[in-house]
Amino acid sequence: MIWTAIVPLKLRALRKSRLASCMSLQERQTLSDRMAARVLAALDEAGIPTRVLSPVPWAGLPWEPDYGAGLNAELDRVRAALAYTPLLAISGDLPLLTAGDVRLLLASAGDQGVAIAPDRHGQGTNAIALHDARPFAFSFGERSFARHLAAAQGAAIIRDHPGLAFDLDTPADLDDARRLGWA
Question: Which residues, at least 6 apart from 174, have a Cβ–Cβ distance to it below 8 Å?
Fold first, then answer.
């Protein structure tokens, strides 16, 4: 079955705003571009057709326009436009993501219908793979993992895979990334 990955990306100037206390705008833009490139490369290596969901085209990649309705509404719209075919919604700020992580997530969704990768704190959601056309409403945002889990009873939960769990949002995350030798 053919999957489509959607990688939401804000405008460069708006990315990683929670790091403004410890990084300049240019540093945040460079960091977010590096992470997005890492995610896109992992998806490419895994052989997953990918579209960037953004207000503007990004680096000549297949583009899905973000019309400003909010991330969840935009993902719901894209999923409907793709006729509910297998869809992976994945964060663009996963600096440790590998093609193996992507394959694991998709295989788990193939087995369970839905696979969810929470962040390492068990609060947010870094990726959701929807294998079939079952009803599902995206609910990204603060503490999204509990909402996604409730919306997808029986979903496979992919924990303890740093590539899927480690997102970089806060100064503490940045410190951890530096300790891991990434940032």
Answer: 19, 22, 23, 168, 183
- Residue 8 main-chain phi, psi, to 5 deg: -70, 130
Nearest to 152 by CA among 117, 102, 104: 117
Q: What is the pLDDT of residue 183?
A: 59
Number of domains present in the structure of the chain: 1
Q: How many CB atoms lie within 10 A of CB 135?
A: 7
15-24 pLDDT, tens digit per residue, is 777 777 877 8
Among candidate residues 18, 169, 159, the one with its CA nearest the CA of residue 92: 169
Task: Write the CATH number for 102.
Answer: 3.90.550.10
Rounded Cα distance, 36 and 80, in Å: 25
**β-bridge mates for residue 115, sequence order:** 129, 156
